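Ticket #4471: structure export looks truncated?
Reporter: QA, pipeline team
Priority: medium

Steps to reproduce: submit the single chain below to the structure queue and open the exported record.
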Amino acid sequence: MGLRWYHFTAWGLFAIGLALLPEIVSKGTLRTFIFANYLVIFAISWDLLSGRTGYISFGHPFLIGIGAYTSAILTKRFGIDVELAIPIAVIVTMIGGLIVLLPALRIRGSYFALVTLAFMELMYQLVQVIRPDLTGGTRGMSGIQTLTRGAVNGFYFSSFLMFVIAISSWFLLRTRIGTALTAIGLNESAVEGSGLSVTKLKMFAFMASAFVAGLGGAFYVHYLGSLAPRALFDINFVFTIIVAVLIGGASTIIGPIIGALFLTFLLEYLRPYLPGAERYFIYGGIALLLYMYQPKGIYALITSGWQMLQEKSVK
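Actual output as written to the record:
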């Protein structure tokens, strides 16, 4: 898939928009954008594996949690500098995820989804009972070192991280590797018949997904300054990540950005009216309706509209 001028223009305008945003919106809105940026990172991580290969993961917080807990423990319990703790956390996420979940990649369909969900629940139980002096047990951890102070600094930092991950993933999936991963999702047997190593491709997708998840989890905990296992390993968190991808447009990278921003602000605006879990039913219904009308998400609606404008301009 070739790169065209409007691709670079769109990314450039997106970067400029992020840079100018603190001059336009309030600090409260910037804090909402910070959470949206991290949801974008988690959604991209899920999309790299599940959006492309079709191996749907219901346990993605397992990977995010490894990165978050590793960096938090290293900095708070052992006094390791955060600049060193985060790379270690990413490596541990990739190794730990590979050891535990690689066997699950031999399973297809709903079985893979159930296995990943089981691992998420398993980690939730383990962090509570194994070495609670390190993990904080059921109470979690607080007083974790933060990297930024203030809404503006936090926004710029998270936006830069999100933008780098997003554009790197976008370029990666427009290579031959991205095409091969998409082919796995369409017809895995055909990819095997073409002579490509499906196992290696799936391993690559999983490692890329684990890398982004571990990186996002590590930076996220150092933004919050605290860590609560029930909030991290919560089914609503998994649901939000998956719906963000589906509502924006899976297997696109740009779709998860759109979906994560949409969902974050939708949940925030619904908070005064529906402070509890009822909000999730609202956005779940919206996601269902959109998926029924346009299975490829908001991104497909935007691209189809752009094509219509181009056709009219030619005429």
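Status: closed, not a bug. The export was complete when the record was re-opened. Leaving a note from the reviewer for reference: DSSP finds 15 helices and two strands in the chain.
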